[in-house]
Write a structure and sequence with these properties.
By secondary structure, the protein is α/β, with parallel strands linked by helices. It has a single domain, classed as Alpha/Beta hydrolase fold, catalytic domain (Rossmann fold, 3-Layer(aba) Sandwich), CATH 3.40.50.1820. The chain is built from ten helices and eight strands. The chain has an eight-stranded mixed sheet, with helices on both faces. Helix 2 packs across helix 3, helix 4 runs antiparallel to helix 7 and helix 5 runs antiparallel to helix 6. The longest helix has 17 residues.
Length: 254
């Protein structure tokens, strides 16, 4: 991976392919490698930029509290460093929250938006409390309990479970804790959905145990021109569980 200094931190990224710029934003508590299986299916259509978000993978951890909007600003700074004015932004789960924050802050830089296993709503107060409690427990006990408990929630696919378990276990406690707090405080993006004039695709597994498929249907209802792909038998990791269908839908953003 390469690294660039963005907003005072070293941000790691990989770049592959040719075509329209596409930023694939990973979810919590993962890194850019979740996209590996879709890359061969998209690299002839897109110039794909794969960042590790702050606190994850090869990027720096930030100890002070930050917001989802700060993570979106990291993406904007990365694009600036690469000389890219406008790109398709597609995010998985937390990456979808970041993609929505990017669309709010930099609408003129969005050539298209992809939301994969994500949602537009903010956390309810009870969910915020759970996230802060989880962040405190991670700083006390480390990431291993998260790797053990979360892998089965992410996907019913045993192969993918094994991969994400190891991936989560390789992350740093402060990165997970910081992201949990940022997600807890994120803005409600639902009110801005109807303003989107750029192409939008929504991809969601019918068996998603973390974010119900109804959240995707609500987004589609708010953005009539959006493409909604519901994947039967798929959980929270469409890009790994069904890379072909995921790539086919993302290709609509070319």
């Amino acid at each position: 991976m390469e690294k660039v200094k963005v907003n005072g931190i070293q941000l790691a990224y990989t770049r592959i392919g040719t075509g329209k710029p596409l930023v694939l934003v990973h979810g919590y508590p993962l890194d850019h490698s979740i996209w590996n299986e879709v890359l061969p299916l998209l690299e002839k259509d897109f110039d794909i930029i794969l960042p590790d978000l702050r606190g994850f993978g090869g990027s720096d951890t930030v100890e002070s509290q930050y917001q989802i909007s700060d993570m979106a600003a990291d993406i904007a700074g990365l694009l600036d460093k690469l000389g890219i004015e406008k790109a398709v932004i597609a995010g998985h789960s937390m990456g979808g929250y970041i993609s929505l924050a990017f669309a709010r802050a930099y609408p003129d830089r969005v050539a298209g938006l992809g939301l994969i296993a994500s949602q537009a709503l903010a956390d309810a107060p009870a969910n915020k409390t759970v996230r802060y409690e989880a962040a405190a427990e991670i700083m006390k006990s480390g990431v291993e309990p998260v790797a053990e408990s979360m892998s089965a929630k992410l996907t019913p696919d045993k192969r993918v479970q094994a991969y994400v378990r190891e991936l989560i276990a390789s992350q740093r406690p402060a990165g997970l804790a910081g992201a949990l707090k940022a997600m807890a405080e994120r803005d409600d993006s639902f009110p801005i959905l109807s303003s989107f004039e750029f192409p939008v695709v929504v991809i969601h597994g019918a068996l998603d145990a973390l974010i119900p498929v109804q959240r995707a249907q609500e987004i589609k209802a708010e953005i009539p021109h959006a493409t909604l792909t519901k994947l039967p038998g798929i959980g929270h990791m469409p890009m790994m569980e069904d890379p072909q269908s995921t790539a086919n839908t993302l290709r609509k953003l070319t």
